[in-house]
C-alpha cells in the first residue's frame, strides 16, 4: 500500500495552494503526509508540475509524485492514476490535503478494512449517504478496470464518484462524533 496526499488541484476557490496553507507549525500537505505516515506505509505527495519548486521547500524530491500528463484525465483522478501507473501492484490510499481535521484513527480503520476486504476494488467512508472518494483506498484490481476504460475511451466521466460507481466498493460508516474529520475546506479560514 502506498499513501498519496492529493495536493495537485488548482485551488481556484481557495485562491492559494491549499497544500501550503499554514496550520500550527506545519502546512496542510505536511500534516496529511504525517497522518498517512502513521499507518507505516510509504507516502507520496501528488502535485501538478507548476507546484514542484514550492513543494521542494517542504518535501524531498523522491516524496513528490508529479502528474503523469500522458494520462488524458484531470482532477483527483489524474493523481490517482498517476500513482497507479507508478505503483501498479499497490493499493493507493488517498487523502486530500484539504481535510486537515482528519483523525489518524479513521485512517487506520480504513487501512484495516482494505486488508480485510479482499473481494473489493475500493474502500470508502459513507458520509450522510455520500461516498468520500478523497479519503479512500483503491486496490490495483479496481484501478486496472479504470485504466482499461480510459484506454478504450469508454470512461464517460472523470469524477471520482463516477469511477467508484464502476468498482466493487466496500463502504464504512463514519463513527458518530467523527463527521467533522471529513470537513473539506475550500475557502480560507482554518489555521
Please describe what this structure looks like.
- This protein has 191 residues and is an alpha/beta fold.
- It has one domain (2-182): Spore Coat Polysaccharide Biosynthesis Protein SpsA, Chain A.
- 30% of the residues lie in helices and 22% in strands.
- The protein is built from six helices and nine strands.
- The strands form two sheets. It has a seven-stranded mixed β-sheet with strand order 5-4-1-6-8-7-9, with helices on both faces. A two-stranded antiparallel sheet has the order 2-3.
- Strand 4 (43-47), helix 2 and strand 5 form a beta-alpha-beta unit.
- The protein starts with a strand and ends in an 18-residue tail after the last strand.
- This is NTP transferase domain-containing protein.
**Integer average pLDDT:** 91
Shape: globular
- Topology as H/E string? EEEHEHEHEHEEHHE
Instruction: State the low-pLDDT regions, or none.
Output: none
Which range best describes the helical content: under 10%, 10-25%, 25-40%, 40-55%, 55-70% or over 70%? 25-40%
Q: CATH homologous superfamily - what is it? A: Spore Coat Polysaccharide Biosynthesis Protein SpsA, Chain A
For the secondary structure, the number of strands is 9
Number of helices: 6
Q: Distance between the terminal alpha carbons, to the nearest Å?
A: 30 Å
Protein name: NTP transferase domain-containing protein
Domain MobA-like NTP transferase: 3-153
Organism: Pedobacter petrophilus
GO molecular function: GTP binding; metal ion binding; nucleotidyltransferase activity
Amino acid at each position: 500500500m502506498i499513501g498519496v496526499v492529493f495536493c495537485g488541484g488548482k485551488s481556484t476557490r481557495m485562491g492559494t495552494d491549499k497544500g501550503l496553507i499554514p496550520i500550527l507549525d506545519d502546512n496542510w500537505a505536511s500534516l496529511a503526509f504525517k497522518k498517512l505516515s502513521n499507518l507505516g506505509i510509504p507516502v507520496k505527495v501528488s502535485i501538478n508540475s507548476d507546484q514542484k519548486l514550492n513543494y521542494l521547500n517542504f518535501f524531498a524530491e523522491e516524496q513528490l509524485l508529479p502528474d503523469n500528463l500522458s494520462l488524458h484525465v484531470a482532477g483527483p483522478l489524474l493523481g490517482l492514476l498517476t500513482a497507479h501507473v507508478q505503483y501498479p501492484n499497490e493499493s493507493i490510499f488517498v487523502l486530500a490535503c484539504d481535510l486537515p481535521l482528519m483523525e489518524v484513527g479513521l485512517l487506520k480503520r480504513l487501512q484495516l478494512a482494505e486488508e480485510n476486504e479482499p473481494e473489493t476494488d475500493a474502500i470508502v467512508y459513507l458520509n450522510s449517504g455520500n461516498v468520500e472518494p478523497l479519503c479512500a483506498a483503491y486496490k490495483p484490481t479496481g484501478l486496472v478496470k479504470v485504466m482499461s476504460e480510459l484506454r478504450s475511451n469508454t470512461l464517460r466521466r472523470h469524477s471520482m464518484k463516477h469511477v467508484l460507481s464502476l468498482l466493487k466498493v466496500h463502504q464504512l460508516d463514519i463513527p458518530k462524533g467523527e463527521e467533522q474529520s471529513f470537513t473539506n475546506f475550500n475557502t480560507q479560514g482554518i489555521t
